[in-house]
Design brief:
435 residues, alpha/beta, Rossmann fold, 7-stranded parallel beta sheet, 6-stranded parallel beta sheet, 17 helices, 13 strands, 13% strand
């Protein structure tokens, strides 16, 4: 028995160790693939051709669902007549329907096909919201000078899978607490500090402008939107059918908007739920790429650890119901930090918690949450902490990206002049020696 105690590892630590081991295994596997890929593509490509293909600024998105994150930036680049290549993993990405003059959309392909091209990308600056650079399939290209990360949610930066932001050169953030989280992770992992720019949230700025100019909604039945994240800790995985039944019993209009990843990672669950709740008079399933309309028409949002809670509460100024008791942080960067997540410290100010004890009183919970005026002050507090420079996010973000681009190109130019001078000096010495 004593021997077993020695071998015992608590579930949290075990989860972290498994993630680390899996990550290391992934690094070995994909490093080998990278070598093979380089050998495959190297033949027939001259150094002069690679140099001539240098992209000034590239933006990469693995899926069209993040179009709202990047459209405000692309519009700002277009306004400045700055050439940008928009690389996407979706063949039907909205970029291909935009009539940009300075923005070029390029379909990379999904999964490993897209990553194989990214790993050989030749660009001065790359901007992306995709985490895990240099962790799994997506490797830093030796021909890219600078990588900038921009989050797609206005909450804790530590809610990416472990090591998700470690290998970026810079991060665009919207709150000082996020910067504190990044610095703590860097210190724990003994990494050099990244550049951080507090610029705001461009996509929420755009959403706010749309809301201000939208037509007033007509009177409608009280509408409840269930929009969870995905995975074992999500509402649909934990509560499933009993919770949907409880929502239906309220008599309110129920809209369910699963996370897009659920249809890939939890395909069986989605098929079972959609088939069971196919009566649109009771439940409506929403899969719109743009979530603006569904958020606008809903009176309350129920979610778990999805960043959509802040889109809903801070832009549309409406309350939320959230869960937290069964969220397992062990696969995430948050596991490394002892501090409570900012998300969970602020949520009681903007809504009410759903748990096993009040599960059966969901109607009363919904009514109380909507009717309690105190949550309005909580939303103001949340905005002040996680949404700096409201209305200026795109401008400030593009300012920062251009600043980094100019620094990189200037440094490269100086290096070329220096190398050219050294080469001329060397040739002169050889010429004198030969004479």
């Amino acid at each position: 028995m004593g021997f077993l105690k020695v071998l015992y590892i608590d579930p949290g630590t075990g989860g972290m160790l498994f993630t680390v081991i899996f990550g290391l295994f992934g690094v070995v596997v994909f490093s080998f693939r990278k070598i093979v890929m380089k050998l495959k593509f190297r033949s027939g490509v001259k150094a002069s051709e690679i140099k001539s293909q240098k992209i000034p600024i590239a933006i990469y998105t693995d899926n069209k669902r993040y179009w709202n994150v990047f459209e405000p930036l692309l519009d700002e680049f277009e306004k400045r007549h700055q050439k940008v290549v928009y690389l996407t993993g979706s063949g039907d990405d909205p970029v291909f329907g935009k009539k940009y003059e300075y923005i070029t959309g390029q379909y990379l392909g999904e999964g490993n096909k897209g990553f194989s091209k990214l790993n050989l990308l030749n660009a001065s600056v790359v901007v992306s919201s995709t985490p895990s650079l240099d962790v799994f399939q997506w490797k830093r290209s030796k021909n890219v000078d600078y990588y900038i990360h921009i989050p797609h949610a206005p909450n804790d930066i530590t809610l990416y899978r472990m090591f998700g932001i470690d290998h970026y050169d810079a991060i665009i953030l919207s709150g000082s607490y996020q910067e504190e989280e990044v610095r703590k992770l860097e210190k724990l992992r003994d990494y050099p500090p990244k550049e951080i720019a507090l610029c705001g949230i461009p996509f929420m700025d755009t959403m706010m402008k749309r809301l201000e100019t939208a037509d007033k909604l007509p009177p409608h039945d009280r509408t409840v939107l269930l929009a969870p994240s995905w995975g074992e800790s999500s509402i649909l995985s934990k509560y499933g059918e009993p919770f949907i039944d409880a929502l239906i019993s309220t008599g309110y209009r129920i809209i369910v908007r699963p996370h897009p990843q659920s249809f890939t990672a939890e395909k069986d669950l989605m098929e079972r739920l959609i088939n069971k709740y196919s009566d649109t008079s009771k439940v409506t399933w929403n899969r719109d790429t743009d979530n603006f309309d569904v958020l606008r028409q809903s009176d309350i949002l129920i979610s778990d650890f999805s960043g959509v809670m802040f889109d809903f509460s801070l832009v549309f100024d409406k309350p939320v119901i959230y869960t937290r008791s069964f969220f397992d942080v062990s696969p995430y960067d948050a596991y490394w930090l002892e501090d409570e997540l900012w998300m969970y410290s602020i949520l009681p100010s903007i809504g009410l918690e759903l748990n096993d004890d009040n599960f059966g009183d969901i109607k009363q919970l919904i009514d109380r949450c909507i009717d309690d005026p105190s949550f309005s002050d909580g939303r103001d507090k949340a905005r002040s902490e996680t949404w700096v420079h409201m209305g200026e996010g795109a401008k400030r973000s593009v300012d920062f990206i251009m600043e980094k681009y100019n620094e990189v190109t200037s440094a490269k130019h100086e290096e070329e002049i220096k190398n050219s001078g050294m080469k001329k000096t060397k040739m002169k010495k050889l010429s004198l020696k030969g004479s």
